[in-house]
Amino acid sequence: MYQDLIDKKAKLAVIGLGYVGLPIALEFARKISVIGFDINPKRVEMMKQGIDPSNELEKEAFEGCDITFTDSIDVLREARFFVVAVPTPVDEHNVPDLTPVKKASETVGKVVKKGDYVVFESTVYPGCTEEDCLPVIEKLSGLKNITDFKLGYSPERINPGDKNHTLASIIKVVSGCDAESLDEIAKTYELVVKAGVHRASSIKVAEAAKIIENTQRDLNIALMNELSIIFNMMNINTYEVLEAAGTKWNFLKFQPGLVGGHCIGVDPYYLTYKASELGYDAEVILAGRNINDNMAKYVARTVIQHIIKNTSDVKAAKVLVKGATFKENVSDIRNSKVADVVKALQSYYVNVDVEDPYADSEELKHEYGFELAASTGNDYDAVIITVPHNEYKELDDAHFVSITKAHGMVADLKGIYRNKISNRTYWSL
Questions:
Q1: 177 has catalytic annotation
Q2: pLDDT tens-digit profile of 392-410?
Q3: Domain map of the chain by residue range?
Q4: Architecture category of domain 2-201 in CATH
Q5: Which end of the chain is more exposed for a tag (fewer CB within 10 A), N or C?
Q6: pLDDT in tens, 115-136
Q7: How many CB atoms lie within 10 A of CB 147?
């Protein structure tokens, strides 16, 4: 398969062209022939024009690429090597929603042929690729894994907004259903990953490796958040504590904050779900999730307590929330915990304005029920800086004085204005 791809006798297809799939498709398209498949025709038309619907890639990223963008399953049939990169979210009860990955498996089942390769990149719990996705492919295709086609798994490591840790510069974990597939899949990814690949011993090992990467980060951030709550009760600045502790060579430098996005705030639930199926309650992981999921309410409560102390009419109070995306300098609003902050504030009947230089107002309205403010005022009782966008880092004390009342609070969740605010009440996690 690898040689056929190199000689362009076979095509590689990427199914799902979002934050993960599109960069992968374009990287491969600089080396081999690629079919970029997405079920959303509007997104497909944008990519045909060299526009990334996710606003992550510049037009130049599309140049010099041998790629066909399509939503046609007939065109998809021309491929021999399929990479599945669709989302794996959780539902409102934090239960894994496998609908996208199962639908993608159905699509693969309709087009896979003898001798083809199928590699999943979507983050799932150990066993999902072989136990949930493979049976769908085999049933629809009438083919058998190993005998007729080869199955593999290579977890994505795309970090939205990160221009340094790119696909090519991060070691790629790869796995296959047998020794032959592992070798072919590894060589194929080595075409685009300059940092090299790590060959996992099995598909389950590769799935597990991905899921614990973000579970580990989630737990460490949960510890920082709990410390922040404790230190706040002691009137100690958490960031000053972390700065001091960070002078030790083996201290892990994590920070408190809202934990959203499509990975850290979601992936641990896939692992705990599978553990529960096996009869084990993952207490430590779920404890960390509980802390992180409740930080939005903690922030809102702290701000409201300040407002109550300084005004007699809470319903007339105004709060400005600066930042709506799940992290800095991206337009991605998936699983943004800022939405939880807004919802918690609104539950106290205060007036909330939201602004963000990257987020799309229509997307926010559709996803969370609120829009970006058409304009911001100059009489806020509190300003919450939730995301440290570059545009916010240069703001100073005078700016916050100009947009807040005399009793106003600057709630700086990431500590970017530490020791810079002197004329307003300052608080950070």
A1: no
A2: 999 999 999 999 999 999 9
A3: 2-201, 226-428
A4: 3-Layer(aba) Sandwich (3.40)
A5: N
A6: 999 999 999 999 999 999 999 9
A7: 8
